[in-house]
């Protein structure tokens, strides 16, 4: 090694040592209070610096090209930039799609109503409302990280800024549209290009993230189920966090797929299926918990021994999967536990039915053996789901050749919410247009533009007023910073380079604030509106009057939107919970009588979606009420799954005719279960208990082993349904209003 190489190596070592002193590896960086500004994490600082430089480059190119409003190029960079490459690319794609749709619609709007202001305002409001309606129905949760919805937000955003600029000069609408589209494309291309320069081993890191996501989910599920088997009564709160993590991690898979590039296979599909299987695993655990807590059911020594082995396996499973790429040792241990459960079921049947050397068990003993057999049956089914989850995980980690597996992103459309979001946005924008028309305000179009931007961004959220309030705070800070820059700093520079140096620190501060969760929306607002308030140009500088004529409509527009969101169809957590409960009860009736049966995975994912939505929108609701509703959702999911399994047993026609008739009658009663008032709760619960007693007696008289196993499967489902109905009577009895005072 020559002296130059040695010097470079020493320099690199010193740099790495310096960075490790600033950001020690493995130590979480606190970002609370003001630490996000003076002690940011390395990743946060890199994101802020990269995006600041990219936005300044976009601004410089726009000025070099002598475009009319170069600030939109810098704004687009901040709107598209995200912390990871996958998120940035996904958002850029949908933003570009939304820009094309919005540009076309804006040109058509101005061409159709150049001299009809009221019709123009009406169609502007209807257009953005339509984008919000479509965005609410697109796949995935309505969060700021879902970029299909962002495509519709970008459509409304572009539709507003082009049409409102164009209506003042309709003869040049095409040139205005092309210039705005140029800014947006420039910002997207630059952000995507610059962010790609800072990516190292992108595909491998994306694969590692998929692996880490599954291990996180399976470890949480394993620890929760182990606690459940150990008798932990606080298992609901643990399951709550696991279900939330599953939804969050599943939402991130599509970004990892983007990062893996064109060479990827179906790793993302298998990863989604694996996480869905983890949710199914938890649902099987809830079945087992119901069987364990059936009154009079005491787990025997055989079940306790098997349960102890399963607990030890579940607690160590994630660590074993993480240490090696070979899942066969884990599957071998799992297979032995499954065999032990099956053997216990077989031994129980032999003891109950008797053999050539032993007599059948007396009725009292037979009942105890039946209860123990159901526990082993439920434990075995839980282990079967765990096996499928591990197999899907292995397929995501080791892609298969000629694999055609596909697991699509589930969509749970809420048409009522979509209509509410659309109407709220339309009314807000139309009201701002009426203010402009009636007051003849010279800055009225600017006011309408900011109102339209806010409606496009936030009307797809359930609580837009809260988001707009945070946005208003960021806009106020942007106005203060812009006032300092416009009135004091920027009048002096005469070259772009000096101006960029002046803007570097203010923009960098906004990027650093983006990493602190409490400040995210305020930071987004600050980063978006700061370039607009600065209004840089080649031949001019923003004077005091122009600055105030931009800042005042901005603040008033956000303030107006916030209050209209609070007045027009405001979000009500009590009403949300009531509607959710009504739909759950209606869904149970649908599952019991529908000709087309939903899959068990669909039922689990639908209720997990409700679970997460309830937690997200809890606001200041007391914990007792939230826990009661969460328990009701989990209980409804458990009942729905067992109804599907019962219908599968009926369709196989292996039950004796008398047992088939009893179960059919019980299902007919369940088909009348829900209704807003007088929901037949009591009759359904009694019909379930009656079916249990009848089939329990028939089972002891059945001599065919296969039929007896089928009857035991039906008994497991009926016992679980009965237990859930008894323990969540207030939730399932539709004649009860289930209002908050009932639970407190």
TrEMBL record:
InterPro entries per the UniProt record, alphabetical: PHBA_efflux_AaeB/fusaric-R (IPR006726)
Alphabetically ordered keywords of this record: Cell membrane, Membrane, Transmembrane, Transmembrane helix, Transport
Main location: membrane
Protein localization: Cell membrane
Bilayer-crossing regions: 42-65, 94-113, 119-138, 434-459, 471-490, 502-526, 546-569
Topology versus the membrane: Multi-pass membrane protein
UniProt KW Transmembrane helix keyword: yes
GO cellular component terms, A-Z: plasma membrane
Domain of life per record: Bacteria
Molecular function terms, GO-annotated: transmembrane transporter activity
Protein name: FUSC family protein
Provenance organism: Novacetimonas cocois
């Amino acid at each position: 090694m020559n002296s130059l190489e040695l010097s470079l190596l020493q320099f690199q070592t010193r740099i790495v040592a310096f960075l490790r002193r600033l950001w020690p590896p493995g130590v979480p960086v606190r970002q609370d209070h003001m630490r996000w500004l003076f002690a940011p994490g390395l990743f946060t600082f890199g994101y802020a610096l990269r995006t600041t430089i990219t936005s300044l480059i976009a601004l410089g190119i726009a000025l070099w090209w002598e475009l009319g409003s170069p600030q939109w190029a810098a704004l687009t960079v901040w709107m598209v930039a995200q912390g990871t490459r996958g998120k940035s690319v996904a958002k850029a794609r949908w933003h570009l799609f939304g820009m094309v749709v919005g540009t076309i619609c804006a040109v058509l709007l101005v061409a159709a109503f150049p001299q009809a202001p009221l019709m123009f305002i009406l169609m502007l409001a209807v257009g953005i409302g339509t984008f919000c309606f479509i965005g609410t129905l697109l796949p995935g949760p309505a969060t700021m990280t879902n970029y299909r919805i962002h495509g519709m937000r970008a459509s409304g955003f572009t539709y507003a800024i082009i049409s409102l600029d164009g209506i003042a000069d309709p003869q040049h609408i095409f040139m205005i549209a092309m210039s705005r589209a140029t800014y947006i494309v420039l910002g997207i291309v630059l952000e995507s290009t610059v962010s790609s320069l800072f990516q190292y081993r992108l595909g491998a890191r994306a694969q590692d993230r998929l692996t880490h996501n599954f291990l996180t989910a399976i470890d949480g599920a394993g620890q929760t189920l182990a606690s459940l088997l150990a008798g932990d009564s606080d298992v609901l709160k643990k399951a709550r966090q696991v279900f939330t993590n599953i939804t969050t991690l599943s939402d991130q898979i599509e970004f990892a797929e983007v990062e893996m590039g064109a060479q990827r296979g179906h790793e993302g599909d298998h990863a989604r299926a694996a996480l869905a299987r983890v949710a199914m695993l938890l649902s099987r655990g809830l079945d087992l918990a119901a069987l364990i807590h059936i009154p009079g059911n005491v787990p025997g020594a055989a079940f306790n021994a098997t349960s102890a082995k399963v607990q030890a396996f579940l607690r160590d499973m994630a660590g074993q999967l993480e240490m090696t790429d070979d899942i066969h040792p884990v599957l071998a241990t799992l297979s032995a536990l499954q065999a032990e459960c099956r053997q216990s079921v077989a031994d129980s049947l032999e003891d109950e039915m008797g053999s050539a050397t032993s007599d059948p068990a007396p009725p009292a003993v037979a009942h105890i053996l039946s209860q123990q057999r159901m526990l082993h049956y439920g434990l075995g089914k839980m282990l079967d789901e765990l096996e499928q989850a591990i197999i899907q995980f292995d397929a995501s980690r080791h892609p298969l050749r000629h694999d055609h597996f596909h697991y699509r992103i589930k969509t749970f459309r809420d048409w009522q919410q979509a209509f509410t979001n659309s109407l709220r946005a339309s009314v807000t924008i139309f009201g701002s247009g009426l203010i402009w028309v009636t007051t003849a305000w010279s800055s009225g179009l600017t006011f309408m533009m900011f109102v339209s931007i806010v409606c496009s961004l936030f009307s797809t959220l359930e609580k837009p007023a809260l988001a707009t309030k945070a946005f208003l705070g960021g806009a106020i800070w942007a106005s203060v910073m812009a006032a300092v820059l416009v009135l004091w700093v920027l009048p002096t520079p005469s070259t772009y380079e000096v101006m960029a140096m002046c803007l570097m620190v203010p923009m960098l501060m906004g990027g650093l604030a983006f990493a602190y969760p409490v400040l995210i929306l305020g930071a987004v607002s600050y980063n978006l509106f700061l370039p607009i308030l600065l209004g840089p140009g080649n031949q001019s500088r923003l004077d005091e009057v122009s600055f105030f004529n931009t800042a005042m409509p901005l603040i008033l527009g956000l303030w107006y939107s916030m209050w209209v969101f609070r007045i027009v169809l405001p979000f009500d957590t009590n009403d949300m919970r009531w509607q959710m409960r009504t739909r759950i009860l209606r869904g149970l009736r649908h599952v019991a009588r529908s000709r087309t049966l939903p899959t068990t995975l669909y039922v689990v994912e639908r209720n997990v979606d409700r679970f997460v939505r309830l937690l997200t929108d809890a606001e200041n609701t007391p914990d007792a009420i939230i826990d009661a509703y969460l328990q009701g959702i989990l209980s409804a999911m458990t009942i729905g799954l067992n109804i599907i399994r019962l219908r599968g047993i009926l369709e196989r026609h292996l039950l004796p005719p008398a047992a088939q008739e009893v179960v059919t009658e019980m299902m007919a009663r369940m088909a009348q279960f829900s209704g807003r008032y007088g929901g037949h709760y009591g009759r359904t619960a009694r019909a379930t208990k009656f079916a249990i007693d009848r089939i329990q007696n028939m089972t002891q008289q059945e001599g065919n082993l296969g039929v007896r196993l089928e009857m035991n499967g039906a008994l497991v489902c009926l016992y679980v349904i009965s237990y859930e109905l008894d323990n969540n009577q207030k939730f399932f009895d539709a004649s009860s209003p289930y209002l908050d005072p009932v639970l407190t």
